Amino acid sequence: MARFFSALCLLASLSLLPACATRAPATPANPDQVPIYDSVTSAPPRFEIVKRLWVGSLRSSFGVPTYSSEEDAMAAFRRHAANLGGNGVINFGCYHLPGLFNSDTRLACNGTVVRFL
After folding, report:
1. Are the CB atoms for 112 and 49 separated by under 8 Å?
2. pLDDT by residue (tens digit) across 4-36?
3. Bridge partner residues of 52 (DSSP)
4. 69-79: buried (b, 16+ CB within 10 Å) or exposed (e) per residue?
5. Domain residues of the chain, as ranges?
6. Fewest CB within 10 angstroms: 8, 11, 19, 81, which?
7. Class of domain 29-116
8. 115 forms bridges with which residues in the sheet?
């Protein structure tokens, strides 16, 4: 019985070994070089998700950043991706929010910061 538990402990420790392996740290991306894709199908096939921005978070329940143009939003998302260690943004989209009393229209945008492998 002691052999069984020893073997079980050995198998458990071996199964945890890959989780202990560290991946080489990603080099920070230059925000100007972070690509943005409007869908996952147009992006490179291998990536890992770093963070979804402005979707399903507590902050998005109370308000999200708004942008005056899609270009401003893309620049902000590139900066966010670089700051979070990502090197791309997928599923990026902007949506018009009506302005107060028919004033200027603002854009709310969301997307997913990824690290392409």
Report:
1. yes
2. 555 545 555 555 444 444 444 456 678 889 999
3. 112
4. eeeebbbebbe
5. 29-116
6. 19
7. alpha beta
8. 48
